[in-house]
């Protein structure tokens, strides 16, 4: 499993890349849709692996 720090770095990199490309291309372009899906995948991965521990932390 990827460490939380590395996954957060990947998310931040993909977010910046998506924002940069969105300034140059229409939002419905293939590149933007692909980058958006890749970012969604990373965010879901983070949520699946790390948000449960945050919920446990705040519930108790």
Sum this structure up briefly:
This protein is an all-alpha fold and 60 residues long.
Structure report:
The chain is mostly helical. It has one domain. The chain has two helices and no strands. The chain has helices at 4-22, 30-59. Helix 1 packs antiparallel against helix 2. The protein is elongated, with a radius of gyration of 14 Å. It starts with a helix and ends with a helix. The mean pLDDT is 89.
β-strand percent reads under 5%
Number of strands: 0
Terminal CA distance reads 26 Å
Mean pLDDT: 89
Task: Give the class from helix and strand content and strand pairing.
Answer: mainly alpha
Succession of helices and strands = HH
The number of helical elements comes to 2
Reported for the largest beta sheet, the result is: none
Oligomer: single chain
Helix content: over 70%
What is the total domain count? 1
Radius of gyration: 14 Å
Judging from the principal axes of the Cα atoms, what is the shape? elongated
């Amino acid at each position: 499993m990827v460490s939380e720090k590395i996954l957060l770095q990947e998310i931040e990199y993909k977010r910046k890349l998506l924002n940069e490309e969105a300034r140059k291309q229409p939002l419905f372009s293939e590149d933007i849709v692909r980058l958006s899906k890749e970012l969604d995948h990373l965010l879901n991965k983070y949520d699946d692996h790390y948000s449960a521990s945050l919920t446990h932390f705040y519930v108790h």
